[in-house]
Design goal:
The protein has 18 helices and no strands. The protein is mainly α. Helix 2 crosses helix 12, helix 12 runs antiparallel to helix 17 and helix 13 packs across helix 14. Its main location: membrane. It comes from Bacillus altitudinis.
Amino acid sequence: MKKLGLGTKVFIGFVIGILLGLIFKEKILIIKPIGDIFLTLIKMIVVPLIFFSITSGIFSIGDVQKLKKIGTKTLIYYIGTTLIAGGIGLLVAHIFKPGNGIDIDSIKTSSEYKAANIPTFGETILGLFPSNPVQALAEGNLMQIIIFSIFLGISIVLVGNKSVTFRHFFEEGTQVMYKMTGIIMAFSPIGVAALMACTIGEYGLKIFGPLGKFILVDYIGLISVIILMYLFMLKFIAKIPLSKFFKSIGKIWVVTASTTSSSGTLPVTISVTKEDFKVKEELAQFTLPIGATMNMNGAVVYYSAAIIFVSQIYGIDMPISQQLLVILMTTLISVGSPGIPGGGIVMTIMLLTTLGLPMEIVGMIAGIYRIIDMGHTSLNVTGDVVSTLCIARSENMIEDEQLNVNKINDIKY
């Protein structure tokens, strides 16, 4: 076992967890605290890891003009891919019609979830900026932490040599956080096994009830994003061999599927992007933490599919203009969601409320949300990595060993 890589060990834990859940069913929930402790430890390191890595990543890039260029590309890629993913989610939902044939009487008529106040566009944008960075750090408001880290990193660059002490502090702090991350991730096979065992033990085959078709369509939408968008980006923009990509991204998927947290998976995402794809550390430290907070390609597929799902159940025809509004709203929500507690369920209620659609279905979706959220998180993080690879290629911040081998062979022959 000592000779196996961490990714292999995590995958073994993933499989063992599924088997334990199927064998022991709900009795396996006795080991739930083990998975909860693992998740808590990951959450413990996320805030300081993002704070140190983004700040040091920015001043490591050094050139303010280059930083501006990379920052602009990051926003374009993240917002652009989110819009496209939302469109794909709508298209798939229209093709497979998950809401057709669902008996309205089988839907719970009540839900313990209440609609939250819907923030305006201005409130959402204002909420991204911290009035008190210390409070943002204490509350774990990731988007506000990112904004403060960006300003701090840029300020260190502008101050120049006078900020040497600050540079050393953040550089050493980043290395300390990486070491702490390594210690915690050494226990990830056990944590992943416990999380998957409890998930399978709790839900089992019950998930394939009235919502079975919706779950299936949701995952078809996620796979469609990979096929229609990511494969194109990888082949023609990032120029990464697909076999190499899927071999490495699998190490991340086993963690995203068990933790269902983009931020919680961040240590693994950064590690794989640097070590497997050879992306320069300063770029990975800058783009990936931002992506973990605002780039929600998988989430918008779900939001789009859920809206069409509900409208089909109740026979409500949505005009094209309203469907385009769904895409824009889900993109905006994916950026502002870190400041709104409750995750995808609360976001679903907000969208249904805004569009004037019934909310009775939300209670059932909440019951199986972890199952579908495994796919959402996996696609969210995959989008972060794919966009980072594209940016790295365009900025010559990736070491492509295969291309170097090909160049050597061309010279020989």
